[in-house]
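Pilot study result, target chain (108 residues):
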Amino acid sequence: MLLLPEPARVVVSLEATFGAVIVGAVVGAVVSLALDPVEIQPRSDAAAVVATLVAIAVTTVFLWLVIPAEYMGTFVQFVVAFLWGSSVTSLTRHVVRPALSGSGTIVE
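Predicted structure:
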């Protein structure tokens, strides 16, 4: 986040920030739950890397075109909340819940 331009690090408003964080966390949790059973088997590691880089580039250009510049700070907060929501949901499902219920194994 420190490498982003200055306008992306400005808090737009308290309401917009709160909304972005709530929506980001919820969307992150939903994506984590929806993509948990999906297993993608790329033909090679190089193909997976190229596909990921292309997807990131296309998404970035699309978002630059769609999101107004003055709301870029809110988008950054959404992304951070999305990553945390997804990570906490996965951690809860795969580590915390099995440890509390005493079933399953914890992968180290």
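One observation from the pilot: The chain has a mean pLDDT of 81. A full batch analysis is planned for the follow-on phase.
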